[in-house]
Design a protein that fits this description.
- With about 400 residues, this protein is α+β, with helices and mostly antiparallel strands.
- The chain is about 30% helix and about 15% strand.
- The protein contains 10 helices and 13 strands.
- Strands 1, 2, 3, 10, 11, 12 and 13 form a 7-stranded antiparallel β-sheet that branches.
- β2 and β3 form a beta hairpin.
- The N terminus is likely disordered.
Amino acid sequence: MHSAISRSLMVLVSGVLAFAVTPVATAAPMPPAQAQPCANKTTPPAPVDTSEKPRPGEAAPEPLPVPPVPVGGDRMAECGLVLPKRALNPPEGNTAASWVLQDLETGDVIAAKDPHGRQRPASLIKVLLGLVVVTELPPDKVVVPTKEDAEQECTCMGIAAGGQYTVDQLVHGLLMHSGNDAAHALSTVLGGVDATLAKMNALATNIGATDTRAATPSGLDGPGMSTSAYDMSLIFHHAMKNPEFAKVVKTKSFEIPPIAGKPVVTIYNDNKLLGHYPGFTGGKTGFTDDARHTYAGSAVQNGHRIGIVMLRAEQRPTRVTEQAAKLLDYGFALREAKAEPVGRIDYKPTESVNAEVAKPAPNADGSSNSGAAATAEDPFGVTGWIITLAVFLIIVVSFVVGHQRKKAMSGE
């Protein structure tokens, strides 16, 4: 009964939003209306422990330079909510300091909050490591982990020193269960931690992730660690275009046979939306004391492929996966309503990175096709009443769907 009610309400809401969220093609991007500079424009918040203390004899890395022109469009420089004109506010209860909703097909940024605010990625940085690995190492290559590889600070997949693992097995442990031991073992094969970090940071630079610096391959906090919701969205967009990566993050369970005296190990995907959120296609989770909870995920519905990245979130009042699900709902509603994008995922690839996002062809007069049809703004009138009705329906739908999801994910 609840399922039928929620489906009916969602259909009604989509129809209402198609009228309520009407972009204005002639409106220029508004400059940031911030009374104070963005709090995390250059660096993440101060660490809560000593994990970012430089090694003896080394100086702390300088903050990454801030580009004079914001990557992804003028509105990506804003610190607060970045929404299409006349769009409803996002669902309440979201705790993330920064987030970005994107269209994985077009590269449109659908909506955001402090997109270039610099935060820590935690294990989302494994997405960048995974890209390096699937690009440079054949999946059937045999890896023999060292004692140091096997004794990393966990979360771990449970590799055995001296055992024989394929790159494919380690990648599953890296991305499905966030194995820090797998991250270190793969880094050893790539030439060591320093060489791997150089490769990861070179890839980030090559594709235009200007806020990102990996300080550890696993995402454990380290000196100079930095990223942003925009950058992680760019990296995630690039990763989901790689068939091997996309296949792994959509895998629910993966079995590793007995190795070096260890029994069969079954790896389960720790992304709780997989199998519970309609059309979910995978993602990545993360946590450290300094980064707090981080999240990336994507889903396909009604021909739209939407991705969400959240940084510095908390598990209360609701779990981060539930918060992410509500933002995905919001993103799909805005796509159905043909809301005007607020920016775009802007790749700047070098010759070694073939990751250019296809851009819409311009019209004959040179104008852009990226937005919906233009209409003139109106006063409160009909639009105002439609938005008021839509707000009420969104509240009802969120209650019903949220209740169902909580029951479905009660084992989380």
